[in-house]
Every structure is written in C-alpha cells, then in structure tokens.
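REQUEST FORM: STRUCTURE PREDICTION
Request ID: SP-0412
Submitted by: Lab K.M.
Chain count: 1
Length (residues): 126
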Amino acid sequence: MTKKILIIDDEPDVTYTIKNILEDNRFQVDSFNDLILALNNYKVNFYDLVLLDIKMPTMDGFELYLKIREKDPKVKICFLTVIATFNEEFRKIRLALGKTINEDYFIQKPVEMEYLLKKLTSIMNI
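STATUS: Completed
RESULT:
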C-alpha cells in the first residue's frame, strides 16, 4: 500500500525537491505553497503524514497544525524548521498546545534527503 504524504511549504523549491524525492521512493505526494489552498483542499482520512513548514506567511505552521487537527485528528504531522529557530519553535509549540510534542516530529532544514526518508519511514512505521 502506497503511503500518502502532504507537503505544505511556502517555498516552491522546497516542495518541488521534497516531492520529487518522495515520489522517486514510491510515496504518493500532494504539495501546496499556499496555506489557505492547502487547508481548503485537505482530504480528511487520506494522508498518512503531513510535512508542514513552520515559518509561512498569513498563518504559521502551528496555526495550520491546529486547523488540520480539527479536520483530521489521526494524521501524523511533522514540522520543518530552520536550524537557527529549532529550539525556539519546539518550545513554542509545546507551550501552545499544552501537551508533549515529540521532538522526533521536528525536522530541521536544510535536510538531507536520505535522513528525511529514514525519518518519515520511521514515523509512519514502514
């Protein structure tokens, strides 16, 4: 069974690169660079994992996380973040959600594709 991943990042080169690598590794991938469009087109109970950038215009990744969770409480969600803001962002999400978020669900950019593949397959228990 092919695993389905949704990538949401405001940088087209990031989504393009990650999407191609994942598709080359037999994942089914949808990607969006527009957060509102991504949210409006979100398919409930369809994705195995959402890969979500934190720093985006109009809405940050944490706000989008909460909106996706309202629609689809079971989907696994990983955050993409630049190394310089990793610790700050990790603390922010834990405080905002009032519960423990596993550090494994944060992936630092820039990311090596081999590492990303290992991380995502581990999270999805493949």
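NOTES: The two ends are 10 Å apart (CA to CA).
Reviewed by: T.R.
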